[in-house]
Amino acid sequence: MKKVISKKYIKPLLVGLFFSNIATNSVQFIISLYILDQTGSTSLFANIMAIALISKIIYTPLSGNLIDRYSKKILMVVLDSMYLICTLILILAVHHSAICSVLIYNIIIGAISSAETPLVQASVPLLVEKQDLMVMNGLVSQMTVLSGILAPMIAGVAYQVFSFTTILLLSSLFFIIAIISEITLKIPMIDQEIKSSLANLKNVLTFLVSTGKKTGKLALLAGVINFIVTAFVEVAVPVLFRLKYHVASNIFGLIQAGLAFGILLAAMLTPLIVKKIKLNNVYILMMVSTGLLLITGLAMLYLNSQLLIISCIILSFVLVQFVFTVVSIAILSEIQGRVEPNMLGSVLAIVMLISMVALPLGEVFYGQVLAIVENNQDEGIVFIAISSVSMLVAWISRKFFK
């Protein structure tokens, strides 16, 4: 790992990514609190947040062409500069029309953020050798997870002490740090034939269903994982622990921290794990971890101890988060190693779009399912069903990494 992180052009990418994510996550977190405090309307809050997601979904498949066509370094600087400008404008506009300002901000930010993740992912193969992709993707994932943990903590504490606009100014400072770091980056430029966004999108889709079928299957696997596993954990954690078992808020916070730690630990250990078990055996990890969901389901069916059931749920969820983070990093590294650099950004944008659409669809599905279950037996059946489907997916995917 030292070999990768010591390279002088890697550090600016990680620093820029960290501070950019801290800023964007802080702004999104503080906007959600601000809207709820100002209006008291959960439906209005949900609609405003959904608009950002819709904007992101619309622009994501088109962003790949920009990533492949232009300098990735310049694009990173431009994106964070646009974040900075939009945040500064929001500071000035929010006092005149809070709801309208936040609405427009979210639409613009959704469009900007559509290029952010595939841009970073497409830059990684240009900065490290193929054998270092797994390590580098683990480092990028660590920065993302850390910023995701720290941003709500920083913004939440600051919101109790400072004003809304003061926190936006602090986030603007983080954007400036990210921009300064990204300016020092050196990313090789790839020659690219100029095409329209729609023509490029058609070309990428053709690649994924014909010459790059294995890459297309990996993209679908990422989406299926988000729909079946990730969405279930995200919905089940608050529903089960807060609504069903009435876990105290401080204990619930520790559970959330444990899940986040599982993701962070997976990002750190992915290269070592894959090296030990080999990439084509990753599906075994998937089957073992989802097998714990099966055991948890059986515990719900046959045990009466609430403490034991809660312990089983926590253990299974932490392991599932850990393993599927490893799988996600492995999928990303495989795609980066298989696709030519001149179309990697476009391919990764489609991969991101599939996963991004799958997650809310899964959340809606599981929200409906968990709303109609009435007792431990029903929930046990749900866990067993999800475990069975997940193990089937793991078994089918065993050939994808060969």
Automatic annotation (TrEMBL):
Chain ranges of the Major facilitator superfamily (MFS) profile domain: 9-402
Record InterPro entries: MFS, MFS_dom, MFS_trans_sf
Keywords: Cell membrane, Membrane, Transmembrane, Transmembrane helix, Transport
TM stretches of this protein: 12-36, 42-62, 74-96, 102-128, 135-155, 161-180, 218-241, 247-270, 282-302, 308-332, 344-361, 381-401
Predominant location: membrane
Places the protein is found: Cell membrane
Name of the protein in its database record: MFS transporter
Organism in which the protein naturally occurs: Pediococcus pentosaceus
